Structure formats: structure tokens, C-alpha cells
Amino acid sequence: MMESIEFEIEGEFIELFKLLKASGVCSTGGEAKMHIEDGEVRVNGEIETRKRRKVHSGDDVEIFDTHLNVI
User: Fold this and answer.
1) Model confidence over 50-62: pLDDT tens digits?
2) Which one of 8, 12, 61, 62 is most buried, by most CB atoms within 10 A?
3) Phi and psi of 62, rounded to 5°?
4) What span, in angstroms and rounded, lies between the C-alpha atoms of 48 and 59?
5) Residue 31 is inside which H or E element, if any?
6) Is 71 within 8 Å of 55 (Cβ atoms)?
7) What pLDDT does residue 45 have?
8) Contacts of 9 (CB under 8 A, 6+ apart)
9) What string of DSSP letters covers 39-67?
């Protein structure tokens, strides 16, 4: 079963690896970068390999069994 987390960003966007760390899905930025590089992260249904991809309010991020709804 997929866990769903709402994450509110401050400002216009947050970089993908920072979102994974700040939300607690990954314990470090390095771990987040590794999962992104390995193609284990989806943004809006598409595999994303850019660590610094700008994630905006309304984007959906999935990693393993966790869904992040960015607001």
C-alpha cells in the first residue's frame, strides 16, 4: 500500500533531492541523489534522473511505496 504525504514548500520550488531529504523519505541528500540517479523516483508519473529538478506546488513525486503531494 502506498503511503501518501503532503509536503508544503516555501517559495516557488524545491529541488528534487532536497524535497526527498526534507520530507524524511531519505535520511541524507546523498541517499536522495543516489535513488534519483538509479531511476527510482518518478515526478508526475515520469522517471526523473535530474537531482536538481525544480519541483513546484501541484507536482506528484513517487519513490518506492511513498507518494509526495507537493503543495
Assistant:
1) 999 999 999 999 9
2) 61
3) -125, 135
4) 12
5) helix 29-37
6) no
7) 96
8) 19, 55, 56, 57, 70, 71
9) T-EEETTEE---TT-EEETT-EEEETTEE
Q: Which residues pair with 13 in a beta bridge?
A: 56
CATH class of 3-70: alpha beta
- 37, 49 Cβ separation under 8 angstroms: yes
Residues linked to residue 67 through DSSP beta bridges, in sequence order: 4, 62
36 touches 48 (CB < 8 A): yes
Does position 27 have pLDDT exceeding 90, yes or no? yes
pTM: 0.93
Helices (H) and strands (E) in the chain, counts: 2, 7
Amino acid at 60: D
Confidence of residue 24 (pLDDT cuts 50, 70, 90): very high
Q: Rounded to the nearest 5°, which phi and psi values hold at 3? A: -85, 135
* Rounded average pLDDT over 22-35: 97
